[in-house]
Write a structure and sequence with these properties.
310 residues; mainly beta; eight-stranded antiparallel β-barrel; disordered N terminus
């Protein structure tokens, strides 16, 4: 039977070439974050793919470009191979290895093109044709006379379900979005593939700033996401044994933050430093607070209440 992860892979491959929504960026004004707004990053207009698929099955795809040339992509025992031919329908070129592997392919090949730029994404895995996740995932681009391909293997869980092309076909962005982050692999003509970049989703600006527990026991400093880093909360005890550390937080909703991966920097762990990650989250309903530490469940209870401290 196909697993849930395999279904996700199938949907991802079928969506190759679709446009992806803008990634959110954050801004805030002062510790309270009361003037903070989520803004969408601006990017150049995308170029709409102008190719069409003329043959397609589990192991073989033929793509026709806007100028009539055709590209044949085929899984073999050696991996993934490509051929091309002119619009006149002359003989196919010699096979060119796009990606060499002895691992079995996962599913059919999906590819698109704009003018003379062709891109694809696919995966390989011992049991992925039976429903398991791929062990190897690749993105690849060919341009010009299509005689050579630039290929980028990536982590198996990054499926590249979407791709967008811009700058007249000289840039392709392979995109893997999720509810908490967007991962992008960019190819540029002349320089090839860059390193994978992950943009974390900002938390709501109401949380950002410094907070002090009304019982005087501890202080929180909530930091917004930074390039390549999750949002985090620094927890510091104000009474009793010394405890200072930080925990990653993600916005499960506009009003709630979930916690994970607490790191102790000073002292020793104490009560609520840190709160148990699977039992509590942070809650705020307005820019001025209060912020609350609340239990998770059908009948949540407030454990600590915090007020802004500058």
């Amino acid at each position: 039977m196909r697993t849930k992860s395999a279904a996700a892979w199938a949907v991802a491959v079928l969506m190759l070439g679709a446009a992806v929504g803008g990634c959110a960026e954050q801004s805030d004004r002062g510790p309270s974050g009361s003037g903070a707004k989520h803004t969408k990053s601006l990017r150049e207009p995308e170029d709409k793919p102008d190719s069409r698929v003329v043959e397609d099955d589990d192991d073989h795809t033929v793509l026709e470009l806007s100028d009539g040339r055709q590209v044949s992509l085929r899984f073999t025992r050696r991996g993934l191979e490509a051929q091309h031919r002119d619009a006149s329908g002359d003989a196919w070129s010699a096979s060119k290895t796009v990606y060499e592997t002895s691992t079995k392919p996962c599913s059919s090949i999906r590819a698109k093109a704009y003018r003379d730029t062709v891109w694809l994404a696919t995966g390989f895995g011992t049991y992925c044709s039976d429903g398991e996740e791929p062990e190897e995932v690749i993105a690849a681009v060919a341009t010009g006379d299509l005689s050579s391909w630039t290929t980028k293997p990536t982590k198996s869980y990054i499926y590249w379900p979407k791709a967008r092309i811009s700058d007249g076909g000289t840039r392709v962005d392979f995109v893997h979005p999720s509810s908490l982050q967007t991962t992008t692999l960019t190819w540029r003509k002349g320089s090839g593939f860059a390193e994978v970049v992950t943009e974390h989703k900002p938390i709501h600006p109401w949380f950002v700033g410094r907070w002090r527990a009304t019982d005087g026991s501890q202080q929180l400093t909530v930091h917004q996401v930074e390039p390549g880093r999750w949002a985090r909360v620094v927890i510091e005890s104000l009474t009793g044994p010394r405890c200072k550390g930080s925990v990653i937080v993600t916005g499960s909703s506009q009003y709630n933050l979930s916690m994970s991966n607490f790191k102790l920097d000073q002292g020793t762990r104490t009560v609520n430093c840190p709160p148990e990650e699977l039992k509590y989250n942070f809650d705020v309903k307005s820019s001025d607070g209060p912020l609350r530490l609340r239990s998770i469940g059908n009948h949540p209870k407030t454990v600590l209440t915090y007020e802004r401290a500058g």
